[in-house]
């Protein structure tokens, strides 16, 4: 009888990977020790201010600004993206000019100009250009307050970036999908919403959530408007108490919480989209197999 040789499986060894892990753990331990046991971080002050009502009120303003600016920038950015993809050269040129302008200007410049808008224009009027016909007139000092200026400034700048993200998602869809949707005789808005947009979301979502996270941190720039959001509130407190580092750590941890929650939401949405995509692919495969089985059956002949 022949003897069967057994093959001994030896796991691969990665000495450099193990050495890198040891070094990383050593560096992490050094950082944790220096942060946790250094009394100059003043963790007692951090704990005292972390859930303070004033801090939580500023956090609420930051979250509200992020939510409103996100919704408005998605709506306005979607319109700009469709204008960039339009067959009209005028719409394409105007959308390109807007995106070029507000991607070039720093957010802090836009906020300061809007905050001083009443100096440039005393009133805003709605009417026919180059004529005396007006239907309404508003005092700019009553229209653009601190909160409204922050919302408008964040929306104007963020819409330019959101428009390019949405446009990139639409361009990532295969052109045959556009032709197939047009062949069905659907209206343009129905083709975009029901066929093209669901396929473009897989490309739009990662970059879109990245911009939302940047927007949440970018709300700190509205401190130039003296608006009591999270960073401005922390700044006012440490200017009074001179406890700079612990209060800055309060803000850093709250921003870390915000970005972590947004990252978790992004992960859940991407998993939901992937699951629905797999389900639709399975249903399409079953329908194809069912169609093939029906067409390959031979016709039955009745014998007389």
Keywords:
304 residues; single chain; two-stranded antiparallel sheet; 2 strands
The biggest beta sheet, please? 2 strands, antiparallel
Tally of strands: 2
Share in helix: over 70%
The share of residues in extended strands comes to under 5%
Describe the structure.
This protein has 304 residues and is mainly alpha-helical. It is built from 12 helices and 2 strands, in the order H-H-H-H-H-H-E-E-H-H-H-H-H-H. It has helices spanning 15-36, 43-50, 53-84, 89-104, 107-115, 117-120, 140-143, 146-171, 175-183, 188-218, 230-241, 244-296, and strands spanning 123-127, 134-139. A hairpin with a 6-residue loop joins strand 1 and strand 2. It starts with 14 loop residues before the first helix and ends in an 8-residue tail after the last helix.
SSE inventory with pairings:
Blueprint: H1 15-36, H2 43-50, H3 53-84, H4 89-104, H5 107-115, H6 117-120, E1 123-127, E2 134-139, H7 140-143, H8 146-171, H9 175-183, H10 188-218, H11 230-241, H12 244-296
Antiparallel strand pairs: 1-2
Short description:
Helices cover 74% and strands 4% of the residues. The chain has helices spanning 15-36, 43-50, 53-84, 89-104, 107-115, 117-120, 140-143, 146-171, 175-183, 188-218, 230-241, 244-296, and strands spanning 123-127, 134-139. The relative contact order is 0.11.
């Amino acid at each position: 009888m022949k003897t069967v040789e057994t093959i001994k499986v030896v796991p691969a060894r990665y000495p450099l990977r193990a050495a890198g892990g040891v070094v990383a753990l050593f560096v992490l331990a050094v950082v944790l020790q220096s942060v946790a046991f250094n009394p100059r971080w003043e963790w007692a002050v951090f704990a005292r201010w972390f859930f303070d009502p004033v801090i939580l009120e500023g956090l609420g303003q930051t979250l509200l600004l992020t939510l409103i600016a996100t919704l408005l920038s998605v709506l306005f950015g979607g319109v700009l993206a469709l204008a960039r993809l339009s067959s009209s050269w005028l719409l394409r040129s105007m959308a390109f000019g807007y995106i070029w302008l507000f991607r070039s200007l720093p957010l802090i410049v836009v906020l300061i100009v809007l905050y001083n808008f009443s100096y440039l224009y005393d009133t805003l009027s709605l009417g026919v250009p180059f004529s005396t016909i007006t239907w309404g007139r508003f005092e700019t000092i009553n229209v653009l307050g601190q909160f409204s200026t922050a919302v408008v400034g964040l929306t104007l700048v963020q819409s330019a970036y959101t428009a390019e993200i949405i446009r990139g998602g639409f361009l990532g869809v295969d052109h045959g999908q556009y032709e197939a949707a047009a062949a069905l005789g659907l209206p343009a808005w129905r083709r975009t919403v029901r066929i093209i947009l669901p396929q473009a979301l897989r490309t739009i979502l990662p970059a879109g959530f990245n911009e939302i996270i940047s927007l949440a941190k970018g709300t700190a720039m509205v401190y130039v408007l003296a608006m009591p959001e999270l960073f401005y509130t922390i700044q006012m407190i440490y200017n009074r108490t001179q406890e700079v580092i612990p209060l800055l750590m309060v803000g850093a941890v709250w921003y870390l919480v915000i970005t972590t929650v947004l990252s978790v939401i992004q992960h859940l949405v991407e998993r939901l989209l992937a699951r629905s995509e797999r389900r639709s692919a399975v249903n399409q495969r079953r329908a194809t197999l069912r169609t093939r089985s029906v067409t390959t059956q031979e016709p039955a002949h009745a014998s007389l």
